[in-house]
Specification:
Blueprint (H helix, E strand, L loop, with lengths): L1 E10 L2 E11 L4 E5 L6 H8 L7 E6 L2 E4 L6 H8 L2 E4 L11 H11 L5 H14 L15 H14 L4 E5 L7 H16 L3 E5 L3 H7 L2 E6 L2 E6 L1 H6 L4 H8 L3
Parallel strand pairs: 3-8, 3-9, 6-7, 7-8
Antiparallel strand pairs: 1-2, 1-4, 4-5, 9-10
Helix pairs in contact: 3-4, 3-5, 4-5, 5-6
Bound molecules: adenosine-5'-diphosphate (ADP).
């Protein structure tokens, strides 16, 4: 379903992603792990074209962006709409309620009638356990609640794949679980997900595949059991030893 070929991203002289090839099947949960600065966030941001790849091809179903030639704004916007991004820092609109945040994309981008968008936003907020908070503003919500609004907001655009960039790392420890549970439920429903996280428990329990990235390359990939219990590469072993 998702196909990434020869992905390269440079920031000026700095080579951050050095050639990544990856195929992901529909409904799979892929967790990206790796040291800070290894390029995980940049990789994810390339997939929804918040960063423009320097080289390579990305494909979701029949939609392809080939960065060996100029890509139009329209094709980027279309491609981006296939992905839902959840950020570490929630990035909610502060002047809108939870409901307003979730309705905004469908109404302004997809031109869905307000009444329909509202119904769907209410359903999504219920799904993430916030039925009683729909009229609250972000400042009235805990970090975990804000992040769950962030997930509902991304889902409202009906993406084919959800991208999570360290969704729990800004949260107090006691709030991490509620966000991970929402993600686990999404996984159970068959959503295709790519998740950058340091939550190794989540990776072990939920991932179909774990990918270890270091220095802009995929060093090793495999089933969580293989990566966590029988890593082949020295660098993977070293990285994981910190979490033991
Ligand atoms: P990770 O998510 O694994 O911690 P990142 O993708 O955030 O890694 O960063 C990888 C490298 O790319 C780092 O050296 C970082 O400083 C650099 N980098 C990320 N974004 C930019 C940018 N917008 N401009 C310049 N350098 C960047």
């Amino acid at each position: 379903m998702i196909s990434i070929n020869g992905l390269v991203k440079n920031f000026g002289e700095l080579e951050v992603i050095k050639g990544i090839d990856l195929n992901i099947e529909k409904g799979k949960i892929v967790v990206l792990i790796g040291p800070s600065g290894s390029g995980k966030t940049t990789f994810l941001r390339c997939l929804n074209v918040l960063e423009t790849p320097t080289e390579g091809k990305i494909q979701i179903d029949e939609n392809v962006l080939d960065f060996s030639r100029p890509v139009s704004k329209k094709s980027v916007a279309q491609f981006r709409s296939l992905t839902g991004m959840v950020f570490q820092s929630y990035n909610l609109f502060p002047h809108m309620t939870a409901l307003g945040n979730v309705m905004e994309g469908p109404v302004t981008v997809k031109k869905i009638p307000k009444s329909e968008a509202r119904k769907r936003a209410e359903d999504l907020l219920q799904k993430v356990g916030l039925a009683d908070k729909i009229d609250f503003y972000p400042f009235q919500l805990s970090g975990g609640q804000q992040q769950r609004v962030g997930i509902a907001r991304a889902l409202a655009m009906e993406p084919k794949v959800m991208l999570f960039d360290e969704p729990t790392s800004a949260l107090d420890p006691e709030l991490v679980g509620e966000v991970l549970r929402v993600m686990e439920n999404l996984a159970k429903e068959g959503m295709t997900m790519i998740v950058v996280t340091h939550e190794m428990r989540f990776a072990k329990d939920v991932a179909d595949e774990v990918i270890f990235i270091d220095g802009g390359y995929i060093i090793e990939r495999g089933h969580p059991d293989q990566i966590f219990n029988h890593p082949k590469e020295e660098r993977t072993k070293q990285f994981l030893s910190v979490f033991e």
